[in-house]
Amino acid sequence: MPLALRLAIVYGTLCIFTGVYLPYFPVWLKSKGLGPTEISLIVALSLFLRLIVSPFFASVADRLGDRRRVVIWLSTGALVAASLFFWTDGFGPILLVALILNVIYPSIGPLVETISMRARLDHGINYGRVRLWGSVTFIGASAFTGWLLEWTPASIILICFMVTLAVNLGGAHLLPREAPPQKKRVSTRSRFADVLEIGRHPIFILFVLTSSLAQATHAVYYAFGTLAWQKQGYPDTVIGLLWATGVVAEIILFYISGPLMARLGAVKLLIIATGASVIRWTITAFSPHIALLFVVQALHALTFGAAHLGAVQFVAQAAPPRVAATAQSLYAAMASGVMMGLMTISIGPLYESIGAHTYFAMAGVGALALAGALLLAVRWNGQALVPEDEPGSEQVIEEQEVAK
């Protein structure tokens, strides 16, 4: 099977779970009797551990030189973790299981991204056209689940979790096996030394903060978007279509992303994304007419899609292959973990007070991210931020040769 087709299937199986989880996990939490503050805490607190755990798994994969094996381990763990929801009730137990699931499953994405970006560089794979199949399955999963909820109770969401995670585990086995390294480096460096090496660079810190803020502008949308639209009286089928509209626009962007990534580059994509987020969330805050809302949803192609493309391209250029997965997971842990978690916790009480007007706060965060993107354009010229060779590795090997 061609490599591009295998990666496309992997993305499809990876994002099918997200298509159920993002729009409808808060709906299931509400059905368990939890309020907006409790929902925001569960969604947010489950994000923070990613800062430690996701880079750890990525560093293990970098050291093993076998990211496929680690993805299969994590996919299995996510399936087992999600099954625990069937035996949970109340805020505490649900939070505990959510913590476990959201530590394991999001660690898969950065590893798959690293494999795909390496395929793009080594084999000329069109990343966008591979990645778009994840968006296609996201649409199918969100729309189908919305249709199910029209005539079934919210408990069906857990069944959807199990089915989609089983599909994801099957897809993980299609990842290409990576060739073992020709020469094994000998080093006493800890796994977290790689994290520190790339993570403390000022330009990388600026990039992480900027891209994390760009993704964090979606906090209200992810945590309360479905609930806000339900409050406005839209049926679940229409809500599923609203989610799908954003992802369709995202698919179109991914399809044409090859020349765009080459022409615009990472930083310009981030500038476009953050500028679009100011426009999108300002309009959404006014609870516009449904026709305009569908148009605004199309900006998801920029607020998420362009930001994502810019971020993965930045990591591919700024981090050498030996720390590529570590750098990608560090960015993902901050963007989808810490920053998104902080934003989600802060908007819970705010949403309870002012409802959809909370989107104005997201527009403000987008403006801050836009300032960071403009500063990044001044500070970074496209170069790698750390050397390719592991510091000290040659010296250690030479000393061992002398000892022999």
What does this structure look like?
- 79% of the residues lie in helices and 0% in strands.
- It is mostly helical and 404 residues long.
- The protein has one domain (3-177, 191-391): MFS general substrate transporter like domains (Growth Hormone, Chain: A, Up-down Bundle), CATH 1.20.1250.20.
- Helix 1 (3-31) runs parallel beside helix 7, helix 2 (36-48) runs antiparallel to helix 16 (324-354) and helix 4 packs antiparallel against helix 5 (91-104).
- Residues 183-188 and 393-404 have low confidence and may be disordered.
Key features of this structure:
globular; 404 residues; disordered C terminus; 79% helix; mainly alpha; Growth Hormone, Chain: A; 18 helices
The averaged pLDDT comes out at 84
Termini separation (Å)? 46 Å
Query: What does the largest sheet look like?
Result: none
Measured on Cα atoms, how large is the radius of gyration? 21 Å
Q: What is the CATH class?
A: Mainly Alpha
List the helices and strands and how they pair.
Elements: H1 3-31, H2 36-48, H3 50-64, H4 67-83, H5 91-104, H6 108-123, H7 127-149, H8 156-172, H9 191-199, H10 202-216, H11 219-231, H12 236-255, H13 257-285, H14 290-297, H15 300-318, H16 324-354, H17 359-379, H18 393-403
Short characterization:
This protein is an all-alpha fold and 404 residues long. The protein has helices spanning 3-31, 36-48, 50-64, 67-83, 91-104, 108-123, 127-149, 156-172, 191-199, 202-216, 219-231, 236-255, 257-285, 290-297, 300-318, 324-354, 359-379, 393-403.
